[in-house]
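About this split. The held-out portion is used to measure sequence recovery: a designer receives only the C-alpha cells and must propose an amino acid at every position. Recovery is the fraction of positions where the proposal matches the reference. Here is one held-out target exactly as it appears in the evaluation file.
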C-alpha cells in the first residue's frame, strides 16, 4: 500500500499516535515515509501540529500540512470562521499523490471522523480516499460506544466501495473494563475486518526512542509489526488473580 488513509471513529481516539506508530515501524524497516495532515485545527502558527508530532515520535519522516486553522473545530467550520480558504478533497489527493512519487509510504491523517467536512461543498476524507483508491485504517476507542461508531464507519466505507484495511484500538487502557475486554472480540465482527493492533494509553508520552522501539509490538504484521491479536485478546480477557 503506497498511500494509507487513517481516520477515526471520532476525536481523541488516538489517530495521531497510531499514525506515528505505523510510521515508526515503516521507517525501522527502511521505508521512506511521509505524513500528510490535510487540515490542522486548534493549533497556533507557532505550535506543533499532528504531522509534526508524528515526526517527533517516529523519526525521519516528511511532515506536511495543507492548511492550519486556529480554532478547534471541524475543518469546514474552522475555515469559514477564520476567513481562510478551505481544503478540498482534490487538493488532498493531489498532495498525497505527489508525496507518493518520492516516498514508499504516505500516511494521510484525517481530522475527527471519516465524514467530517473539509469545505462548504461537503467534501470529506472519504472522498479523498476514493480519489486516491487508497485503503483506510480505522482507529477506534476501546470502551463502551465504540461498536456503534465503528460499524457506522465500516458501513459508510462499504457503501462507497472503499477498502477498510483494519481497525486499531488507539488507546488501550491500563485497566480495561468489561466493555473494553469484550470489544476485542466484537470489533472485528461489526467492522468486518480484523483488529490490526492496540496502542497502549499514554504511548504518545514516551520518549521517542522508546516509542520507536516498542511500536512494532502494538501493530499486526499487516502494518509491519509483530502484534498477535489472538494472543492479546486471550491475555486481556483471561481471569486475573
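Reference sequence for scoring:
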Amino acid at each position: 500500500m503506497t498511500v494509507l488513509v487513517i481516520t477515526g471513529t471520532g476525536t481523541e481516539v488516538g489517530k495521531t499516535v497510531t499514525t506515528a506508530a505505523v510510521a515508526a515501524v515503516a521507517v525501522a524497516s527502511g521505508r521512506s515515509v511521509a505524513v500528510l495532515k490535510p487540515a490542522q485545527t486548534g493549533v497556533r502558527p507557532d505550535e506543533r501540529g499532528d504531522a509534526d508530532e508524528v515526526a517527533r515520535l517516529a523519526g525521519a519522516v516528511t511532515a506536511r500540512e495543507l492548511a492550519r486553522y486556529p480554532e478547534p473545530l471541524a475543518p469546514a467550520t474552522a475555515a469559514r470562521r477564520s476567513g481562510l480558504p478551505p481544503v478540498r478533497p482534490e487538493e488532498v489527493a493531489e498532495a498525497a499523490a505527489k508525496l507518493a512519487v518520492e516516498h514508499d509510504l504516505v500516511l494521510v491523517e484525517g481530522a475527527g471522523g471519516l465524514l467530517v467536512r473539509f469545505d462548504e461543498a461537503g467534501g470529506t476524507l472519504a472522498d479523498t480516499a476514493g480519489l486516491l483508491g487508497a485503503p483506510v485504517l480505522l482507529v477506534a476507542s476501546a470502551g463502551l460506544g465504540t461498536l456503534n461508531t465503528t460499524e457506522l464507519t465500516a458501513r459508510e466505507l462499504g457503501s462507497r466501495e472503499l477498502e477498510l484495511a483494519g481497525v486499531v484500538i488507539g488507546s488501550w487502557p491500563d485497566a480495561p473494563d468489561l466493555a473494553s475486554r469484550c470489544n476485542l472480540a466484537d470489533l472485528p465482527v461489526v467492522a468486518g475486518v480484523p483488529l490490526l493492533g492496540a496502542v497502549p494509553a499514554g504511548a504518545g508520552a514516551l520518549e521517542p526512542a522508546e516509542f520507536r522501539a516498542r511500536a512494532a509490538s502494538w501493530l499486526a504484521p499487516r502494518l509491519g509489526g509483530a502484534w498477535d491479536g489472538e494472543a492479546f485478546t486471550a491475555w486481556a480477557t483471561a481471569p486475573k488473580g
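Annotator remark: The two ends are 43 Å apart (CA to CA).
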